[in-house]
Amino acid sequence: MDYFYCPPEKITGDSVLIDGDEFSHLVRVMRKKEGDAIRVVDGEGCAYEVTLGEMKKKQATGTITAAYRNHREPALRLTLAVGVLKNPSRFDFLVEKVTELGVHEIIPIKTERTIPSHAKTERWQKLALAAMKQCGRAYLPRVRELTSLDDLLENCSKYDLRLVAHEQTESATSLQSHLAILHKTVLVLVGPEGGFSEHEIEMCLAKGCAAFSLGERRLRTETAAIAVAAQIGSIVLK
Q: Which of 97, 45, 82 is closest to 188 using CA atoms?
């Protein structure tokens, strides 16, 4: 069944209203018509089976025939904080894949070794939306504005578990070892090209982050982020 996005404010009772870009995709790309069955997701974890009704010039209405909460969502909410990459296409790829794997939030971060001074947040949010619909999710991961590592660490105590990827320390343990106890919210920090500096690692540890390793090989930033999302998703998916 084809998936379409409809924000919560456009879902009332047993009715949905589809307009804007989603309407264009519904009519011009997917060629849907009155009476067709589609699946609508609200980006907040709810999915609806919908029968299309009246089709106007710029909008369509539909009737909800079934509803599902926490549709295909992990039990654990993973926030990935990742250093912005020099090559923007690699961060595009990262956003798309971790969305498919169930990440709850993505925070681009600026570190000592981060080269770009800006982030394409709007573009990444659109990529997350497309990936959400493609993979059949009902929750739209939020891509936050570019955040400094200092600011992120000042507000990281709200997460049940805080982890930082660091392959160059003997004290780093495996990711799985930190997940032996199920947590509700997890923050994982992944550095940019070149990784975090030693000073930044010390800052993370001082704020309650535990260091972990993804193995003996040195991974690219996007590979590490995807590996984290895949491992955590495979452990806690309902």
A: 82
